[in-house]
Amino acid sequence: MPNTSPNTSATPADADHAGAILEIDLDALGANYDNLRHRAAPAECGAVLKADAYGLGSIQVGPKLAAMGCRRFFVAHLAEGVALRKILGVAPAIYVLNGPLPRTEAEFLHYDLLPVLNSPCQLEQWSGAAAARERTLGAGLHIDTGMARLGLTPVEAAELAANPARLAGLDLHFIASHLACADEPGHALNGEQRQAFHHLLTALPAAPGSLANSAGIFLGPDYHYDLVRPGIALYGGNPTPGAPNPMREVVRLAGKIIQIREIDTPQSVGYGATHRVTGQRRIATVPVGYADGYPRALSGRGRAGVAGVSVPVVGRVSMDMITLDVTEAPVDAAYPGAMVDLIGGGGPSLDEVAEAAGTIGYEILTSLGRRYHRQYINAPAWNPAHRQAQRRGGDE
Ligand SMILES: *Cc1c(COP(=O)(O)O)cnc(C)c1O
Questions:
Q1: Are residues 200 and 225 in the same domain?
Q2: Atom of ligand 1 nearest to the CA of 230
Q3: One domain, residues 137 and 278
Q4: Quick one: 224 and 285 in the same domain?
Q5: Any idea what DSSP says for residue 381?
Q6: Which of 104, 108, 103, 107 is nearest to 93 (CA)?
Q7: Which of 109, 15, 117 minimizes the C-alpha distance to 339?
Q8: Residue 153 and residue 142: Cα distance in Å, rounded?
């Protein structure tokens, strides 16, 4: 079947024929937004949708959050902003965290996108664009208080505070900074960054403050200021590592067993013969591999859930497959055609998968492959882009 939708181009047309199903629960996403909004109130709660909403799909995630009342969206790249504007329509504010790269002003303005200004040079560029057009232009201003990555240095911010005329023609929607260690509540840098931010916010011309990402929201009201910018917590990642996850699970990845190998003579499993089977074992092959974003680092380390029983990934993760030792799982749950939980559901949580792979939930989500059959649970019916994608990829 010809399929032109970029969102579903590699998606099997029929869930029954799919080797793996990626379920994205938009109700849970909405509940997470509500949770964060209430926690942050009276601060406003925006949403970070960079990298295609952390791999979950801006086409579905954007309208859901807009329907929940979110009015400020953040992306990293200009192209992501353009795509999101087409999805969301004219109303919400969309901020581009990377700021205006040279000669991008016209595109920013055409799509009504707002740059986050990260350097004196970007500041000059955007105020110059305002002067050239004899109008006021909106923007965010980013001050670096401890990342050495993006944003005006504290010295540059102090210079700007001493010469606020450089902000002529600009309507600052917020002044932001980004926390380096918000997921470690005891880290001294949190308080230091907050103090530095507070000091500069007071010195600069009045504008709303924005400091907290997901984990920052959980550091308490001192960190909320006027606008919070959660990403990972919306998508179900734990913003309070080490404590129980207060967020609802949004992503569930289930793979289908395509073969069961009954082994009764000693032999090895997979590339490199890293796993040796002795005795009677049942090995299940599931068609999900590192090409699908299932980390190769989970070779011999990952777990999966089979009817709620945790079973190990044995041998190496291949490009298109993993092998599970399902000997301990009920026989009537581990057969060719049966689904096993790889992320969420009855299997390991997103954060457990990440930890076993030596990474973070962010990387697992943004690596989620394009070959899964994607199912959006409780998508808002009014979103035309979504309905179209469903029709193209759906099974009616
Ligand atoms: C990615 C990002 C966020 C969101 O961070 P999470 O940890 O996913 O909540 C917030 N602010 C900035 C500047 C970011 O780059």
A1: yes
A2: 9
A3: no
A4: no
A5: T
A6: 108
A7: 15
A8: 9
Whose C-alpha lies nearest to ligand 1, atom 10?
213
Establish if 20 belongs to a structural domain: no
Residue by residue, pLDDT tens for the chain (396 residues) are: 333 344 444 455 577 889 999 999 999 999 999 999 999 999 999 999 999 999 999 999 999 999 999 999 999 999 999 999 999 999 999 999 999 999 999 999 999 999 999 999 999 999 999 999 999 999 999 999 999 999 999 999 999 999 999 999 999 999 999 999 999 999 999 999 999 999 999 999 999 999 999 999 999 999 999 999 999 999 999 999 999 999 999 999 999 999 999 999 999 999 999 999 999 999 999 999 999 999 999 999 999 999 999 999 999 999 999 999 999 999 999 999 999 999 999 999 999 999 999 999 999 999 999 999 999 998 765 554 444 444 433 332
Q: Are residues 223 and 282 in the same domain?
A: no
Contact 284, 323 (CB under 8 A): yes
- Contact assessment for residue 145 and residue 180, using Cβ atoms and an 8 Å cutoff: no
Structurally, the chain folds into a number of domains equal to 2
Q: What is the pTM of this model?
A: 0.92
Residues in the chain: 396
Classified as helix, coil or strand, 325 is: strand
Distance of CA 174 to the CA centre of its chain: 22
> Is residue 97 within 6 Å of ligand 1 at its C-beta?
yes
Q: Provide the pairing of β-strand 339-343 with 209-210.
A: unpaired
Contact 285, 300 (CB under 8 A): no
Nearest protein CA to atom 13 of ligand 1, as residue: 178
**Amino acid at the residue 380:** P
Residue 21: inside a domain: no
Tell me whether residue 166 is exposed, middle or buried, using C-beta atoms within 10 angstroms of its C-beta: 0 to 12, 13 to 18, 19 or more. Answer: middle
231 and 87 in a single domain? The answer is yes
Residue 391 included in any domain: no
Q: Which of 74, 143, 250 to mutate to test the pocket of ligand 1 (most atoms within 8 A of CB)?
A: 74
Residue 267, domain CATH: 2.40.37.10
Query: 7: Cβ below 6 Å to ligand 1?
Result: no
- Domain with 51 in it: 26-236
Q: Are residues 231 and 275 in the same domain?
A: no
Token duo for residue 384: 């035309």
Of 212, 236, 260, the position where a domain reaches its end is: 236
Specify the pairing of strand 93-96 against strand 72-75.
parallel
